[in-house]
Amino acid sequence: MSKPVIAIDMGGTRIKIGIVQDGILLDSTSIDAYSTNGLRSRLPYIREAVENLLKPQQLSLSDLGGLGIASPGIVDSHRKKVLSIDKKFGDAPEIDLEEWSQKMFNLPFFIENDARSALVGEWIYGNAQNHDNAVLMTLGTGIGSAAIIEGKLLKGKHFTAGILGGHSVINYKGNVCNCGNKGCVETEASTWNLANMRKSEDLPASSVVDYEMIFTLAEEGNTKALEIRNQSLQAWSACAVNLIHAYDPEILVLTGGIMASSSSIIPYLRNYIETYSWTPWGKVHLTEGKFSGTAALLGIAHLINNQ
Amino acid sequence: MSKPVIAIDMGGTRIKIGIVQDGILLDSTSIDAYSTNGLRSRLPYIREAVENLLKPQQLSLSDLGGLGIASPGIVDSHRKKVLSIDKKFGDAPEIDLEEWSQKMFNLPFFIENDARSALVGEWIYGNAQNHDNAVLMTLGTGIGSAAIIEGKLLKGKHFTAGILGGHSVINYKGNVCNCGNKGCVETEASTWNLANMRKSEDLPASSVVDYEMIFTLAEEGNTKALEIRNQSLQAWSACAVNLIHAYDPEILVLTGGIMASSSSIIPYLRNYIETYSWTPWGKVHLTEGKFSGTAALLGIAHLINNQ
Fold first, then answer.
1. Confidence band, pLDDT 50/70/90 cuts, at residue B207
2. pLDDT band with cut points at 50, 70 and 90 for residue B1
3. pLDDT of residue A198
4. Residue B18, SS3?
5. Which pLDDT tens digit goes with each residue over B96-108?
6. What is the Cα–Cα distance from B256 to B137, expressed in whole angstroms?
7. Residues of A in contact with B271 (CB under 8 A)
């Protein structure tokens, strides 16, 4: 049995913190991310949340095996640094997180990209188990991805291989993305861009514009919602085809907040990739992730113990 | 010193045949491909061409170390079979090429995808030397690609990883490709689709419609040629960004017949990828291949000796 570890998933809306032991999430909590304000100001709250998690488990820091962070952006998992990040947590590259972890908890530290962490979670404990060629696609605030090829987590020379699926160009005459590129999947269909895609007068006034609302309104026949839903399903499908063509997986695992509407998404994408992707050997198995929102915690915990 | 080997590159227009020893092309020839008529009827001519090459070199079959084929399409390099192929050489999957090679030449046999072979040629002997993270993109009748990541030629579980860059979706609302997918790079800009892209009345009457003509006419200010040139440069650039985002290379090597117009292509693509790809570590080195049209021969020859 391994020692329990602290696992932190830096989501753009909520930061999740969990205690994980051998693939089991013993307990977890989350705090507001306020990610546009940066990460540094959240560190004291993360520390507090960790302490609050340990007490009821009757655990002290000396009982733990490490602390791991699943972060958005490009992460150097050898030097344990965030190298580059989209708008969320923009100050992360300037923070020495290993030093912070050392000072606050005195524990072995590990950091990896969040989609890679989630794929490892699904690979070791979830729906990608026993598949040594697997791709994960996360649909949420942004679109993330990760790939395992022939049993190896794909990283590449500069740690960007596999994780930039959301910045796959699917509309080369399209709009500029957050990342500076043109026509990325994210600019065509992700939560951060929903506000631009909708025209407020066409949809009911609401402080929340999310895909759950879009899918519900589309079911009810709202024209604008139908248009957004259909374009989004096409964009995610094209992204899925690009990931399949790039990495040759047996299985494609879908996760992320937008998968709350999975019953509308899975059948569409499955039909699309079976029709349009070039896989003469057979069909890529398309499935939802096993762990709704906690795969990255389980994955980063596994990586701490196996770095 | 290795024994010389026979290297065959099944191009869609010409089949090239060479004798290669230690990265040197001792001699080569080519025959018409008539690739839409299939491969089987060309095999006797390939045999004849091999014999004609050996004589002046004073080589007999017993002096040779093997025979290798660089083929378009999806190639199983373990079982040494073409698995699936676009319109060119459509009968190749039904031919036991290893048996043919055995019967005709009694030599060790190897087969690999043509873009992968060309990348190996550039990696071992050409412009990608000393780069263990390299991507090749071929611009020609179709668009091909291949990738080496951390010193390993990327193949994937079903031998499709790396080679389907031409079937990366860059226009998800676009037209249907030869491969059955929608909005592939190839459908937006490759030689096979030029006849569809032009409107004959807008360009001078000519039996040949190729990119060299398009680039020349564009220089002269022909409106339709300019439109095709500009769309094609954008499409290839988006493909290059997708390959960079997928595989994280240090270097991107461009080859293929369209590179006859490299002086118009390289500066555009270089500027585009430096502007739009997400490479916080620096700039991907974009370069033309060293071997105009013979990289696949050198690469497959290397692979025969190192299978």
1. low
2. confident
3. 66
4. strand
5. 999 999 999 999 9
6. 8
7. none
Interchain contact, A157 vs B132, CB within 8 Å: yes
Give the domains, in start order, of chain B with CATH numbers: 5-118+294-305 (3.30.420.40), 131-288 (3.30.420.40)
Mark yes or no for CB contact A164/B246 under 8 Å.
Answer: yes
- For residue B87, give both structure tokens: 């319109």
CA angle at B171 for the pair B167 and B175, rounded to the nearest 5°: 80
Sign of CA dihedral B212, B69, B24, B148: positive
CB-based contacts of A87, cutoff 8 Å, min separation 6: A35, A36, A178
- Say which of A157, A237, A280 has its CB closest to residue B83: A280
Q: Do A172 and B235 touch (CB under 8 A)?
A: yes
Residue A300, token pair as written in the block: 């980063």
CA Rg value for chain A: 19
Distance of CA B213 to the CA centre of its chain: 21
- Pull the structure tokens for residue B112: 């690999």
How far, in Å, CA of B28 to CA of B184, rounded? Answer: 34
Overall residue count recorded for chain A in this entry? 307
**Arithmetic mean of pLDDT, B163-183:** 94
Considering only the beta carbons, identify the residue of A159, A181, A248 that sits closest to B241. A181
For B200, which DSSP code? G
The residue assigned the tokens 């061409």 is B49
- Indicate yes or no: CB of B170 within 8 angstroms of CB of A167: no
A270 contacts: CB under 8 Å, gap ≥ 6: A286
* Burial of residue B17, with CB atoms counted within 10 A of its CB: 0-12 exposed, 13-18 middle, 19 or more buried: buried
Parallel, antiparallel, or unpaired for β B24-32 and B14-21?
A: antiparallel
| Beta bridge partner(s), residue B110 | B68
Tell me which of A50-54, B90-94, B204-208, B224-228 is least confident. Answer: B204-208
Per-residue HEC secondary structure of chain A comes to CCCCEEEEEECCCEEEEEEEECCEEEEEEEEECCHHHCCHHHHHHHHHHHHHHHHHHCCCHHHCCCEEEEECCEEECCCCEEEECCCCCCCHHHCCHHHHHHHHHCCCEEEEEHHHHHHHHHHHHCCCCCCCCEEEEEECCCEEEEEEECCEECCCCCCCCCCCHHHCECECCCCECCCCCECEHHHHCCHHHHHHHCCHHHCCCCCCCCHHHHHHHHHCCCHHHHHHHHHHHHHHHHHHHHHHHHHCCCEEEEECHHHHHHHHHHHHHHHHHHHHCCCCCCCCEEEECCCCCCHHHHHHHHHHHCC
CB-based burial label for B196 (10 Å; 0-12, 13-18, 19+):
exposed
User: Which residues does chain A have with pLDDT short of 50?
Assistant: none
Per-residue b or e along A122-139, where b marks 16 or more CB atoms closer than 10 Å to that residue's CB: bbbbbbbeebebbbbbbb
- Asked if residue A290 lies in contact with residue A126, where contact means CB atoms within 8 angstroms, the answer is yes
Instruction: Tell me whether 0.85 is exceeded by the ipTM.
Output: yes
CA distance, residue B1 to nearest chain A CA (Å): 33
Give the residue-averaged pLDDT of B87-98.
93
Structure confidence by residue, pLDDT tens digits, A165-189: 999 999 999 999 988 999 999 999 9
